[in-house]
Amino acid sequence: MTSASPQLFRMLLGPPFPQLIVLAILLGLIAFSDALNNGVGRTPAMGWNPYNAYLCTTTEAQYRAAAQSLIDLGLKGLGYQYVNLDCGWQGKTRASNGTFTWDAAQIPSGVPALASYVHSLGFKFGMYSDGGVFACDFVGGTAHYLGSLGHEADDAKTFASWGADYLKVQFCPTFYVPGL
Ligand SMILES: *[C@@H]1O[C@H](CO)[C@@H](O)[C@H](O)[C@H]1NC(C)=O
């Protein structure tokens, strides 16, 4: 088989410019392998999200404990790098200047302090918002956690300034708008 291959190639490619065609194929393969070796998406985003354990009731203490558990269980060493917030961290009204707020009962130290703690353990910090006026909740849309509708760019900047490395955006959209 191996000795037949050159003849097969000559037959398939033929004159007049087989070398050019082979070169083009090789360049194409190099470009293709570059695209696959850019480091993006080699694993899913690996980390901890509280929803399955706590729905929308996760406390700051539970977030901190979970981050420590990722280390204690050896998961950090296996590539679990995110500690993410999920629903219930948000405030219910914006600050008077329109800035997003957190619920001080759920996150007493505040989101920036929690983000710093997560970073200090060597993890990335993920946040959560929603594309609606209000976010998803577990009480039929009546919790009225803040969503980001109409504030997307400002909220993204706010979350980044608080230390977010990742943002999960859910869509519990217009049917949570009062009156619709
Ligand atoms: C808006 O107000 C909050 C406090 O209520 C403050 O932390 C924040 O820096 C203000 N943002 C701007 C853009 O002035």
UniProtKB/TrEMBL annotation:
Q: EC annotation?
A: 3.2.1.22
Record-linked Pfam families: Melibiase_2
Q: Which residues form the signal peptide?
A: 1-35
The reaction(s) this protein catalyses: Hydrolysis of terminal, non-reducing alpha-D-galactose residues in alpha-D-galactosides, including galactose oligosaccharides, galactomannans and galactolipids
Record's keyword terms, sorted: Disulfide bond, Glycosidase, Hydrolase, Signal
UniProt lists the family membership as follows: Belongs to the glycosyl hydrolase 27 family.
Name the chain's protein. Alpha-galactosidase
